[in-house]
Amino acid sequence: MAPLERGRIFHHAAAAFVNGQPATEGVSMHLEEKLELMDKVLSDVAAEFEQELAIQVPLAWGSELQSLRTDLRGLVREMEREQEWTPIAAELSFGMAEATGGDLQSLVQPIDIDGLVLLRGAIDRVDKHARGPLRIVDYKTSPYLKADQPIVVHGGQVLQPLLYALAAHRIFNLQVKGGRLVYATTRGRYRSHSIELSPANEQALRTVIDRINTAILDGFLPAAPIEKACERCDYRRVCGPYEEERQRRKKDKLAPLQELRKMA
């Protein structure tokens, strides 16, 4: 199973799990009931994808689903450990009129982030704390992102936690503590990065967006990969293997981008 397909199935099942739980306040399910629900929604989602993908190697497909089941059941157990947080939305989209299977609270129109950007996307999960604040959760099925210091925008590579936290604030008009990247697989060991929605972090986000907007207005959007990025890029056949070497000739023009990449 390709990583993209695996990720889609994971996200669809995780959302169906949240949306399949009782909506009545004060009514909760026991852990075993939640695990059974996750097994059921994964089977339902997998059946839909099996038709879409026209699976031709059932044995390999079954093995991949078992691996997914293990990861998703692990996610359920991780959620159970945080009793103070309750999921209130899953696959909450905005600006995606054609999206299906999302949360009923989704918005057709995009969200204006302080006049800097019109945001379209879908939040994997929104949690509410027992004391009232919200947080957004973004699932990652990729390897855990190691960092030498707390992540804010990670050189412009990690923007969803803060952008989606701002979006959730606009949608619910409630305090949002921030965003959380959850590496929700046994490979990722369910580790996470939490990013606070603070004035300093919002300013860092605005700096990144401003740099992007300036580059678009100037029409200067060169191929300038980070170190070793070409080795894992799906578009290597288009650019060739030498973009990292070529970008060294554009050193002066790339100074704003290099400064951005040094941000935490």
How would you sum up the major sheet? 5 strands, mixed
- Structural class, please? alpha+beta
Using only C-alpha atoms, the radius of gyration works out to 20 Å
Which word captures the global form? globular
Work out the helix count: 8
Query: Strand order within the widest sheet?
Result: 1-4-5-6-7
- In round numbers, the mean pLDDT is 88
The structural domain count equals 3
User: What's the N-to-C terminus distance?
Assistant: 34 Å
Q: Name the beta content range.
A: 15-25%
Number of strands: 7
Portion in helices:
40-55%
What string, H for helix and E for strand, traces the elements in order?
A: HHHEEEEEHEEHHHH
Low-confidence stretches: none
